[in-house]
Amino acid sequence: MLDGNITRRGALGGIGVAGAGLVAGCVGGSDDDELHILTDLSSDEWQEYWENNLIPGYEEEYGLPVEHEYTGLDEVGRQRLATLMQAQDPPGIFHASLPEIGDLVNQGQLADVDDVLEDLEDEWGEPVFKYLLEPIDDQIVNIPHGPYIGCLQYREDLYDELDLEVPETWDDLLENAQAIDEMDNDVRGFGLSAGPEGKPDADFSCWLVNAGGDRFRWNSDDEVELVYEEDDVLAVFELLQELEQYSPDPASLDYGTTIEYWASGRLGQCIMLNAWVCSAAYEAGAEEVALNTKQEVVPHREGVDPDVRGFVTMTGAPVLEGATHTDGAKDFNRYMYGPDRHIEVSLMEPMRFLPPYESILEHEEYRSADVFQIDDGYFLERNEYLLQEIAPQVSDPESPTTPETLGLLSFDIDAQMINRLIVEEEDPEDVYEWGMDELERRFEDVKAAANY
């Protein structure tokens, strides 16, 4: 529920926020004479841009009709994609990060798009986090749309009011959460997400690395193996159980509802992507919240000095093998992300997505956009801080990112562990045992199903 005049539509629409749970557009199978695009770029602004700019321009230039289908956040798009794949009717393009569709990476169902990226690099230079686009022997399988950086979001005005410091450790975070939660208002101290899929899986990666642990590592035979050390995972579980007391109902918090709570001014801290919640609050009319929202690396476990402080993933536009118009899909990516449109594409949701090339962040057309003139460039400052200060602390090119690891992550097992722990209130050691059994079994299945 949102407070005052802040509506769900206001919180999830407009400047940088795609609609949650939206399924719109044509939902039939694709026609052999059309390029089918499945996308979660579905805010009101995006829909107008797709229908009045991108698609008409592409159809006129390339002569190939486009059928575009909108999906919402979290699992809605993946479920629709699975339906199309089962019907042997894959879309030409599906906007996603590779961990979201790791099963397709592992099964060799994404087209090589090296040639497309080479064309784009001639204009923009090398993308940031390029390693996230090439999990298969330097083969590019995703055209970058924009990186997501998982980091701590906090209300600086509340910190100032309560004389709180930016938390360095988990104990600091808990103390801040308690102080905010005990204020005489409706603000909760932390937004803890504990559904069985989606956001909790991404959040878990932040907690685990800041516990000093990891999901995967290279062994002496240069093969990837599971890590998930019991001490690290149980430490994360203990933290989450303590944070739960300062959170709205964790079962209800996903990306969309977390955005709503933040935009309504009812959360003081959470983990979220980029500076997405800033724009949500601003669009909803909560300017004070928006202009007091700051980002920082996720706090670490006491006594641990982790090398990596969060996660980064690259959202993009992979092209699916087996689609009717694979070449047409590649051309659409050249068209959408080429020199005439990529800056305006990056300005469609400028706080949800960071630009995938430093040259775009530095381009005068990008920097002079109206959104970046607000409050003497507050939002531009946030994007610069994320890319220049936080990104180096969360990026790890040496961490195993392979078709097998991506395939395993597509099962959301980490989110299911959190759900069992927080929502089902199962014993932490039992949850860990269940999770490791599931991870080991699925990892063997993934390796057996590999086809790349």
Automatic annotation (TrEMBL):
Signal sequence region: none
Record key words, sorted: Sugar transport, Transport
Domain of life: Archaea
Descriptive protein name: Multiple sugar transport system substrate-binding protein
Species this protein is from: Natronorubrum daqingense
Lineage of source species: Archaea, Methanobacteriati, Methanobacteriota, Stenosarchaea group, Halobacteria
